[in-house]
Amino acid sequence: MDPDLALLLNGIVSGLLLGGLYAAAAAGLSVSFGMLDIVNIAHPAFMVLGALVVALLWAATGLDPLLLSILLAPAFWAAGAGLYVVYHHFFERRGDEAIQGLAFFFGVMFIIEVGLVLAVGPEQHFADAAYASTTWRLGEIDLPLRMLVPAAVALAAIGGLALFLRRTFTGRAIAAVAQDREALRLLAIDPVRIKRLAFGISIAFAGLAGGALVVVQPVDAWSGHVFIGRVFAIVIMGGLSSLGGCVLAALAFGVLENVTASFFGPSWSPAVAFGCLLLVLAVRPQGLFGRVA
Amino acid sequence: MEGLSRRELGRAALAATAALTVPATARAQTAPSGPPIRIGYSMSLSGGLAGNGRPALLAHRIWAEDVNAKGGLLGRPVQLVHYDDQSSGAQVPGIYTKLIDVDKVDLVVSGYATAIIAPAMPVVMQRNMAFVSLFGTGVNADFKYDRYFSINPAGSQVKETFAKGFFDIAMAMDPKPRTVAIVNLDSDFHQRTAESARFLAQQNKLRVVYDRAYPPSTVDFGPIIRSVQAARPDIVYVGSYPPDTAGLLRAASELRANFAMFGGPMIGPHITAQKLQLGPILNNLVVWDVYAPEPTLQFPGTQALIERYQPLAAKENTDALGFYVPPLAYAQMQVLEQSVARVGRIDQAALAADMHANAFDTVIGPLRFDALGEWAEERNIYTQYQGVQGNGIEQFRKPGTQVILYPPRYKSGELRKPYTAGA
């Protein structure tokens, strides 16, 4: 195969795998930011919390990191639901959520980061999955399982969430609360309860993304900073409340970054990816799959 | 003296006589007295640099205990006054202003790394304080402050000397390499080291077939390694920090990298946790370092310091082996200690003059400063991991696991090639 073609194909495939990780990181935010209108800037910090808890449990039990992150999902859901209760009581209920809510989540982010340093130290932590050093090869195409398995698990979980949102009454209520919470009351549905449930789901997804992250790379308390800009950009590019759009935007981000890195150098990757975001917003201000308000 | 018996009076007289007959230096060793000599600095105890900031602070505390146990400095106890800069250079000027103007510290030293040292310089220079820094590279090249002294083996001729060890080792291979790839993180330190690599590649008539920097936000390093492979270099020079080092080496392993020589200032395996994580992937990696537990690189006090550090590090949940930062952090304080002892008073101008004029005996060996305050004789060490099996810690404590290839005076092993990322 022509070396440039092999480089291009590998760039696309590795970009799709990287996009799977980005999708895992952004899916939860798509629920909280896109559907609930809660600017949870601490979302990547929750992801890192999940990653470090998984790393510690992996060191203690030797269980697969992704399995551990799935087992931890209920705990993260409960933490998210609890956090929403606080947020609703002190900010949303009073209509102060715009700026003060943002400050609240900034505070939560710093508390998580400092708490993690105090609890587990500033060093990097890792979890070595049994498959992490295996690479499948399809001709000239490399498929490292370190990237493939987290991406596959993340996309399967997002698929499950999409089904839940589309096929169940509660799922539809979550989608509806994003559009008109008062209309929800007319159906005898408590929008606060629905938002609490949905915010819990978003944090559970952050925990799951943490499991994927710690398989891909070692993690310290501040690893989330790298993802803040990316996950918000992906959610906006995808069209805020569109889970499918979020996944496609994440995959596009991954492919753009890796193909750019392969041919023009990694320094250009963020510029090209965020440049494409601006281009999309110029043409479709509502994002790729967003609806016009 | 009421109620004192004759026997007790006799004992007291004996004690007083003994105290008078003991030499003054010995008395001082038992009881430092008077107001403490306060040494102020910022240190990264949280944030991205904390992984090295916390071991540095632990080494400083060990030094303070040692000095106070020996009777203090000028007979006075030493006291460390430090604040967490959160690994943010923006915090640093405020911290040093407070240390000097409010806390009224007697002496200042730096926290860890160039990004923290440089923001302190204007404040320290304004107050004319002598300033001993830790792991700063080329900080004083622009300031040219005559009271700055650097504890970093890189020396002042970074471009000419930093990567010299790497290229000297490479050019001694048979067959000689003809091409080189240069990959570096887009950071101040790694820009300087990459510049050194470019300069020395040209000196050695090597063709640079790949030369690109990557941003700190890079997550997937596969495309970088793949592009390097496509360029087919004989040797690969990489400058990276811990998260990237792990990513690059993992990607090299997944993509079956095979280069005659691979490495450079890849900061990462210096930290114990990463040594354990990477295990056999480290085999045959050539890494810039400042210390390795090899018999050829032992100085008085090095091993004793590490033996005291390791149990404390285990308690405080910080870097377990302490080979990288602690010896240099301890030496940073030794320079200050020896200078103050020689000068005999806290006089910033006299301390700076003393540091320029004299050599220092430290746990990292003898050192002397040049006009810019850098080491007069650089001591960039290039090591190679060999025979790493599994992920156990004990193998890294023993000689032979991280052999020294350069400089020749500390050499403890021969280069093994190629680098195959654990395959």
Element layout with pairings:
The complex is a heterodimer of chains A (293) and B (423).
Chain A (H helix, E strand, L loop, with lengths): L2 H33 L7 H19 L3 H26 L8 H22 L14 E4 L2 E4 H23 L1 H11 L1 H6 L4 H26 L8 H14 L4 H22 L4 H15 L10
Antiparallel strand pairs in A: 1-2
Helix pairs in contact in A: 1-5, 1-8, 1-9, 1-10, 2-3, 2-4, 2-8, 3-8, 5-6, 5-8, 6-8, 9-10, 9-11, 10-11
Chain B lengths: L5 H16 L2 H7 L6 E7 L6 H20 L8 E7 L7 H11 L4 E6 L1 H13 L4 E4 L5 H4 L4 E4 L6 H4 L2 H8 L7 E7 L2 H16 L3 E8 L7 H10 L3 E5 L2 H13 L6 E4 L7 H7 L7 E4 L12 H15 L8 H19 L4 H10 L2 E3 L2 E3 L13 E5 L8 H4 L4 E5 L17
Parallel strand pairs in B: 1-2, 1-3, 3-4, 4-5, 6-7, 6-8, 8-9, 9-10
Antiparallel strand pairs in B: 10-13, 11-12, 13-14
Care to describe what's here?
The complex is a heterodimer of chains A (293) and B (423). Chain A has 293 residues and is mainly alpha-helical. Chain A is 74% helix and 3% strand. Chain A contains eleven helices and two strands; from the N terminus they run ααααββααααααα. Chain A has helices at 3-35, 43-61, 65-90, 99-120, 145-167, 169-179, 181-186, 191-216, 225-238, 243-264, 269-283; strands at residues 135-138, 141-144. Chain A has a two-stranded antiparallel sheet with strand order 1-2. The longest helix of chain A is centred in the first third of the chain and has 33 residues, at 3-35. Chain A starts with a helix and ends in a 10-residue tail after the last helix. The mean pLDDT of chain A is 91. In chain B, helix 3 (50-69) packs across helix 13 and helix 4 packs parallel to helix 5. Chain B is globular. Chain B has helices at 6-21, 24-30, 50-69, 92-102, 114-126, 140-143, 158-161, 164-171, 188-203, 222-231, 242-254, 272-278, 302-316, 325-343, 348-357, 394-397; strands at 37-43, 78-84, 107-112, 131-134, 148-151, 179-185, 207-214, 235-239, 261-264, 286-289, 360-362, 365-367, 381-385, 402-406. The model of chain B is unreliable at 1-10 and 12-28 (pLDDT under 50). Chain B is 42% helix and 17% strand. At the A-B interface, helix 1, helix 4, helix 9 and helix 10 of A face helix 3, strand 7, helix 10, helix 11 and helix 12 of B.
